[in-house]
Amino acid sequence: MAVVVGFIPTDVGFKALAAAREQAERRGGPLIVVNVVRDGVTSDPRHANDQQLEIARDQLRQAAVRVEMRQDHTDDDIADVLLRVVTEEKAELLVLGIRRQNDLARHLLGLTVQKLLLAAPCEVLVV
């Protein structure tokens, strides 16, 4: 069964990528890596550039399952894009990396993560 990971090019994003690889290999894959780029937003640190995507590919090169890297562009909600991919791929698991900035974990996680936790039609692993 498929594992989808919402990838952002940060330390926690790369940890989520490693966890997603492990889960995909355990479950028999494939692993779908999705970096969502919001159109019209030029300086978002969640957008992976070519070099960061290549680092992610290198991290996954020896994976024992098929890996698909996607960079989806949208002017929509990031959570909606990930939910669409999870549904299209019939994913068994969605993996997310969250930053551990306190303030009660940024008011209990943040809107995107909350939406994904509540609406995902599969298990969600938060790293």
Automatic annotation (TrEMBL):
Family, per entry: Belongs to the universal stress protein A family.
Domain (UspA) ranges: 3-127
Residue ranges of coiled coil: none
SUPFAM superfamilies hit by this protein: Adenine nucleotide alpha hydrolases-like
Protein species of origin: Brachybacterium tyrofermentans
Protein name: Universal stress protein
One Pfam family named in its UniProt record: Usp
